[in-house]
Amino acid sequence: MQKIKLIHEVRAVKNRRELANIIKAQRISERVLKATLLKLKTGITELAVEAFIKKSFIKLGAPILSFSPIVSFGKNTANIHHVPGKTKLKRGDIIMFDFGCTVNHYCSDMTRTYFWGELSKKQKKVYKDVLQAMDLAIDKIKKGEHSAKIIDKVARSFLSKKYKNNFKHGLGHGVGTVIHEWPNFKPKSEDILPVGCVMTVEPGIYLKGFGGVRIEDMVLITKKGAKNLTKVAKNLKSVIL
């Protein structure tokens, strides 16, 4: 007897047109990120950067965003869902951007963490650890793993050995016409990733009074593994501004 697919399962698998919209939205976001990095200067506020991001999306013909942009500086980066405020950028700060836009109703999603000037030993360690957790998870998908729980565990167990109970959200989620779609990377998730779905992979560490690091890419689940849809450098050298 054939299993009847539920609507969220059908919706998760993207056809070529849907995938093209998601990729186009991501490429626009990448252009906005590039312009935003050039806009940064000591003393600029989170609110000013957020306003620039919104204007840039309008200029590029994508005025409808996937969600309200997250722009956080310094200790504010420890707040997972920080709302941009009057905090000014200063040397030594961690900078976090999390934003995306929509093209024909299809969303993109990306997070990048940067450092304004030379970074401390601790900042460097946290960044490298989060990046390694992300690489471990993506490698697991590329090797053909489709169990959301197992993929989440690879990143989570790596980080939990170094930072006790600090990775406080799922490793990622499906992306489509809404920003959080089925399936979900969570410790107790029973979801199995179907070929053709687009997932975020976004490990993060958040240390109160210090700051946080989150890195997020969108990945297409393929028959032979995975294809990373995000084309923004994230190696340590590229994130020191």
Automatic annotation (TrEMBL):
It comes from the Bacteria. Residues 21-223 form the Peptidase M24 domain. Signal peptide: none annotated. PANTHER family: AMINOPEPTIDASE (PTHR46112), AMINOPEPTIDASE YPDF (PTHR46112:SF3). This is Peptidase M24 domain-containing protein. It comes from Candidatus Nomurabacteria bacterium RIFCSPLOWO2_01_FULL_41_12.
